[in-house]
Amino acid sequence: MSARLRAAIGALIVSIVAVVGLSACGSDSSTSSTSGGDTLTVYSGRSEEYVGPALDAFTKKTGIPVQVRYGDSVDLALLLGEEGDRTPAQVFLAQTPGPMVFVAQKNLLSRLPAATLAKVPARFRADDGRWVGVTGRQRVLIYNTDLVTPSQLPASVFDLTKPEYQDMVAVAPSNSSFQDFVAAMTQISGEQKTKAWLDGMTANGAKAYAKNGAIADAVARGEIPFGLVNHYYFNEIKKKDPNAPVGIYRFPGSDPGSLFLVSTAAIPSPAASNADALALINFMLSPEGQAVFVAEEGEYPVVSGVKQKSGQPSLAELNYPSYDLSQLTDLKTTAKLIQGSGIGG
In the chain, what are the domains? Predict the structure, then answer.
């Protein structure tokens, strides 16, 4: 058995153990709660840093306390699949559409009301109405301006496999936004080309980090010249240090590297009639809720009439490839493709 195959099997075992462990625990260090009243239970694949302010604003406005289990979007999707109708979750928030597609395929998400779905353009919600986009972000390449000149920027994300980018690019293979990026690339460019890109990135020494934020920090430190992340991580770096030597590059045209993704929200089937769960999603899609996300991290609003962060292109001005969010490759297929390449390993 090869070392790469042993590593892939080991990663799968770790994932299964993690899911079983989550299922067995009623609470852990990733869980925070607000006491009082009928508490709304939320599984959030988005970290407290990003979703916490909106949840706090919801509780302040409605008086409904919220208890949150924070974790990785993929892990929580697997947990929901394990729990089935026994899940205590009344709202599921995911970093990207992929985990939602996985849970929806198991018929564990309820259909949202037409009035809620209508708040968001059709391209940012599930075809069957089982989940809805909440905020938008674009995949970009960030780079260290002390180490990289404009002439070194690639014309396409596929160019990053070329020799001139050897050992220069950071990725986050275990992050759900990267996984959805790979799933969308498969849909846009085909599995063969996607596999060739992953293999090429591995051969070219792409370096793995646990999260997008860690990539952004590493680029700012000059630890690595380039990183594939969501656009708002550039905003975070500049917010911490306006003079940080970091630039943002959006791949031109409809290149898969400029993919536009949405964070997502859904109501698990056992909570289909829970009015508080629907109230939370409607709040997140209200001008007030959208404004919180925009103000905190500069994410793109998906509801019309909400002002976006100044200094970045508007959603209407962005160029990004067209694809069907509801038809993203399932988690297992995407994970197999990523693990099989050994990217970042």
Answer: 3-135+262-308 (3.40.190.10), 137-259+334-341 (3.40.190.10)
